[in-house]
Amino acid sequence: DGEQDKRADKEKEEMGKEGGLSLLQTQGPGIEVLRQQQRAIVAALVAQHIESGDYASARALLEPTNESWDAAFGWALVRLHVHFGALPAAERALATCALRDPEGTRGACGLQHQAFLALGAGKFAGAADLFRDALKLDPANMACATNMALSELYNRQLPKAVDALESVIKADPTAMTYAAVFNLCTLYDLQGANGLDKKRMIVRLAKAYASEDFDLSACKL
Q1: Distance separating alpha carbons of residues 149 and 145, to the nearest angstrom
Q2: Residue-wise pLDDT tens digits, 100-127
Q3: What string of H, E and C letters represents the secondary structure of 149-169?
Q4: Distance (Å, rounded) from C-alpha 134 to C-alpha 106?
Q5: How many Cα atoms within 13 Å fall on the side-chain side of residue 68?
């Protein structure tokens, strides 16, 4: 949409005038605090644009200005393109990340973003393998386990989907989240057999290790 792109270009231009993205390249005492504050502001604005379906404005906020580049924005740009189905743009953004953040690319972060791209392209088995490799590097990453389970489910591998979440929760029950437990218990419902007993086991783990305010309704009992 031409009008949307014009608005996005104007927003990006204003960000540059006000020191927006270029602030991340500034050096000096306390600048990291400012960087973190800026990232939080940009993330909130991007989330609003995504919610309203405004891809162009979200993209304008994340794309680097002039020579500036920030790893957090770079990886977020990959996810944004995948979210809106712009896979060629996601591939280009991923290639930029590989050049500008080689350490991150080799780690769990890079593997997860490759997996996002594979998931967006409908390559569910490949996405699951990439998420699995990322989990080996970051075993307590509940979001990664959830995405791996989703990939396995899309690939019609229900037992593997269950195992993806179950193994992470059992390995570190203190890290369990409402979303992860809810998704796991939903998978138990799909499995049918012994689902109730498995949910009760998760309840026991949650009572023993999860935070005091953990909502046990996630277990769907």
Answers
A1: 6
A2: 899 888 899 999 999 999 999 999 999 9
A3: HHHHHHCCCHHHHHHHHHHHH
A4: 10
A5: 22
